[in-house]
Amino acid sequence: MVEKTLTVTNETGLHARPAASLVQFVKNMDGKVELVKDGKTANAKSIFSVMALGISKGTEITARVEGDNEEENLEKLVEFINNLDE
What pLDDT was estimated at residue 6? Predict the structure, then answer.
């Protein structure tokens, strides 16, 4: 398992449309993809789970990936979150 901490810079955080985009992006990744906020863990392949974290702009989260190509997938995930449309 690999993980990286980052700060969400998207104006609306990970709500509704950005959360749906994230879920679509990670759904084909092998293994587990999780987001952690304030000790709560969410399955990044579930829109309900991601939205339940209530991630707003400026929130520090940890992206966690486990499985095949986990380091490569983690970098892709972090880049995706950092480049979400505002």
Answer: 97
* Active-site annotation holds for 15: yes
What is the tens place of the pLDDT at every residue in 36-57? 999 999 999 999 999 999 999 9
Two tokens at 59? 């929130």
DSSP 27-69: TTSSSEEEEEETTEEEETT-HHHHHHT---TT-EEEEEEESTT
**The model's pTM:** 0.94
Which residue is listed with tokens 């986990």?
Answer: 70
Amino acid 72 reads: E
The mean pLDDT value of the chain amounts to 95
Give just the sign of the alpha carbon dihedral 31, 76, 42, 5: positive
From the candidates 4, 15, 57, 76, give the one annotated as an active-site residue.
15
